């Protein structure tokens, strides 16, 4: 279960719910259907149990933006619980020579599988990286080609290339945008290879999706309505996540929120200054209490802060007794002022810090809401992913923007080509 | 050398320069003196060559906020160049049980050194963590205490504790704030232990500090003046850093900028809504071209974007020929549309992507500036650190805020204690 505390004004949810249903049935975005795609699930499960992978210790994902952020988010949240798989993951996202060198020095071809993920099939970073890898490791030779597989849009140039070369290639529907694709094969294949229970991930996702479409998650629309109505007063959306397990989920949220909602309202004239959008900021607590919090408390009052945390019980699920993390009853001479937390479980202390920060912001009339996961497992992360996606879609409806395109990123791509002309 | 392209209006720099000189001579902040502190340098160098460290393969830093972000920033930027040291670093920043377990499972006491860093000496996260480590590893026993050392403010409770226990303890001046402390022993000790050339780091820092005080870095004051003058029109300061090596530097910048400049103007009434501040956002290019860029291009026009990058030459300095990263002349059937970058060095492609993004934003009249490091080494990072610190101080002067305190973070700390009362 996920507990939502959403103290914004209740609104009539029907118009937004109807608009979302229309998006789903018209196919304006395909992400609504992903949790129900049992064929994709079966295909990812079957692939990850192939004999080839029994000798694979390292998975290298070549992909950027929506092709890597979702997998990063889910794996960072849950990877600690599937260490038995002992498979490592590396991400190659752009042509940074230092990062690429570091990854290459830590792998050997024999025990490595490369997964190229590009929706368009022509992402310049990803294709440049894979050209390098193909040359470096002779990946298209018949002996080595089983070490490379691809995920791309159905009908993309990459699909043609992969098929012609006899590479394994998975496709996803074109109407599933990169930032909404983590529950498609884009996320399911790598997450399954990393040992996560992708069935449970989709089950959680399905539960949230069904509940929303049944009109039982009105708090999502209430929150979207508050954010949309006050987008000029509160242009910054902060996600304050308590626990390092959420650090990559924050980055996924930043893309989802920023790229979906940051739009020119006219959509026709790119030089228009009539842009709308909510600027996402991802923070990790308690760490960022020592960084960004001062600005929230005393800076300009332009932020809405959503708190994300785990219930105190989450650390007890998988731990044996001897590994429980509790502040010991340890008295250090001179440091008695810190003894008040002695005996407190680590996670409980983290959660009390969240509570203290949340109540401080409330007392200052800074808008806040909170989300608490009862357990840290695939089911809950699946549901959480869909929660954020639906919140994004609802806010997009209420802001009057198309949440599913990204015309603004094309300008720079076109300009890049002119340098080579 | 660092090249700055700062196309903002030139201003009379004298008043700000005089204010900064007054801050330095009055001791309002002690960071201005750090690059000249040869005693600290010698002390860190001597410590890191002690016999004890010959068997140490893992350094665990217990510290949060200013106690870890600076070391993270410099090490992430330069760690690739000192791999010969082969010492690993881990950070324990808060009582996250999952993260703590992960770190503990990867180390053994015999080859690990723990470095506790807390300015106040009573940071609740850090002391809770060290209590756990003391209990878990029996760190105060005579056989083990050489594996723990401390860095704290001169005169803090932690200093008394450390001295009473016979632990090695370094102190820093109380007027050096955590977020301005990376060039003090807080950064010098761990960075030296990790194999970085801290002499060169301070030399670069000294060069920038001296040049600024000699009135030769007027572009810093021009930029500060633009940001302060337009802080309501452009409340968001984006640092768009090209290269994964800068990912942690971004986080350091976010703390420096947010915590220094986000202040209540009256400073007396914490519930005042008359806060000022510039919200910092750190992006990594080209990765975040696939994430946040859409929002900058088409969203609300409330951002100033500073680009940070490396010159094309940076990848050639330390690389042997066979390890040079260039997009190969590799033609993949069906993917010919990507061939225009064939033959381009990785870093040059990254820099051209930066250029294309920068020119796109310029063409849309979004305010931008750029910073290019000629080399990626200690000297340049030292100079860059001082650049950002001075920019923060100058902007603070022009906004009329005290850049060196953080009263807003105390409210939550006090509230936390009430839960245990």
From TrEMBL, chains A, B:
Assigned EC number: 5.3.1.9
Keywords associated with the record: Isomerase
Q: What is the protein's given name?
A: Glucose-6-phosphate isomerase
């Amino acid at each position: 279960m996920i507990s939502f505390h959403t103290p914004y004004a209740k609104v009539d949810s029907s118009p937004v719910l109807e608009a979302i249903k229309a998006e789903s049935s018209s196919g304006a975005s395909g992400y609504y259907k992903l949790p129900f795609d049992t064929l994709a699930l079966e295909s990812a499960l079957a692939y990850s149990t192939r004999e080839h992978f029994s000798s694979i210790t390292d998975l290298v994902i070549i992909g950027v933006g929506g092709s890597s952020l979702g997998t990063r988010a889910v794996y960072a949240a849950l990877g600690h619980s599937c260490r038995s798989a002992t498979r490592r993951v590396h991400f190659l996202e752009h042509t940074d020579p230092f990062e690429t060198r570091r990854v290459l020095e830590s792998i050997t071809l024999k025990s490595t599988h490369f997964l190229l993920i590009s929706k368009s099939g022509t992402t310049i970073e990803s294709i440049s990286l894979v050209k390098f890898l193909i040359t470096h490791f002779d990946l298209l030779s018949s002996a080595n080609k089983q070490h490379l597989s691809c995920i791309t849009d159905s009908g993309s140039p990459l699909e043609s290339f992969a098929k012609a070369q006899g590479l394994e290639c998975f496709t996803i529907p074109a109407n599933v945008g990169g930032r909404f694709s983590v529950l498609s094969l884009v996320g399911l294949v790598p997450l399954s290879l990393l040992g996560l229970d992708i069935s449970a991930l989709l089950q959680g996702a399905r539960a949230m999706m069904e509940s929303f479409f049944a009109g039982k998650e009105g708090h999502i629309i209430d929150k979207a309505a508050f954010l949309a109505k006050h987008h000029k007063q509160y242009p910054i959306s902060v996600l304050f996540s308590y626990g390092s397990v959420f650090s990559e989920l924050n980055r996924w949220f930043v893309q989802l929120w920023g790229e979906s909602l940051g739009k020119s309202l006219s959509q026709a004239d790119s030089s228009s200054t009539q842009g709308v959008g909510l600027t996402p900021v991802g923070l990790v607590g308690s760490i960022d209490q020592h960084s960004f919090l001062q600005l929230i408390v005393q800076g300009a009052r332009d932020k809405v802060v959503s708190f994300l945390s785990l219930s105190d019980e989450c650390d007890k699920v998988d731990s044996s007794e001897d590994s429980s993390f509790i502040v010991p009853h340890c008295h250090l001479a001179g440091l008695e002022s810190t003894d008040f937390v002695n005996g407190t479980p680590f996670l409980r202390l983290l959660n009390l810090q969240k509570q203290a920060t949340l109540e401080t912001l409330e007392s200052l009339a800074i808008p806040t809401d909170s989300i608490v996961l009862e357990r840290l497992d695939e089911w809950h992360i699946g549901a959480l992913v869909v929660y954020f996606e639906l919140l994004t879609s609802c806010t997009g409806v209420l802001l009057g923007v198309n949440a599913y395109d990204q015309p603004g990123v094309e300008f720079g791509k076109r300009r890049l080509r002119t340098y080579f002309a």
